[in-house]
Amino acid sequence: MKDSEKFEINKQTWNNKVAVHAKSDFYDLANFKNGSSSLKSYEIEALGDISKKNLLHLQCHFGQDTLSLSRMGAKCTGVDISDEGIKLAKQLNLELNLNAKFVCCNVLDTSDVVSEKFDIVFTSYGTIGWLPELKPWAKMISERLKPDGFFYIVDFHPITWMFDYTVVPPKLKYGYQQKKAIYEEYEGTYADENSKMVSKEYGWNHGLGEIISSLTNAGLYIEYLNEHDASPYDIFPGLTKNTEGMYELTNKLYPLIFEVKAKKINV
What we know:
267 residues; alpha/beta; Rossmann fold; 7-stranded mixed sheet; 13 strands; SAM-dependent_MTases_sf; transferase
């Protein structure tokens, strides 16, 4: 099967997820509409003061983070592969009287449909695992950044994706640097495990070395790579809530989150 066919299967799954997620406690859309932010502590601290900044949000789902960033004063453009996700994002943008823009496309094709240069390119939580390779992703990020602009990603650590979570207990099954696509089919979603929708998903594992090298080869300077034991989301089995309201493995055998900040080199 070609990658383009796998992308289409993923797109249909994400289209189906939108209605389920919009009704879920996980996304808490009612409180979001009333002014609560969907952003978490890692990205808020890393992005800093974004007022009057042009910001490109990659793989934005139905736009909650994009709109949260817009509320903070940034001029935002959100990109996602899901037609239904972008449709809902545009509806929310109008309803909340914000000025974000949303574009439906495969993230790897962003430069084909977005010509603007940005101060910040941002992506978070469950993103690069949908991409078969990262060189074109990093190239696109570099293309979309202004000189001296920066890219920031916070995502689940590559070690977490070595496990098969469709079985109990989770089984260590997939390679850290596995090149072959991983196919999973299961009922429900991370936002609503009781949903009857069937998720059909192709994903790819990427180690930290591949992530860093793809960005540096695209002309970005790595400011930092951080790894964290604590996740803002309780989406993996066996996590306990710490005193700061974050979720950790009791034994802390491996990190759950990584973050990278990289600057576009002005040449």
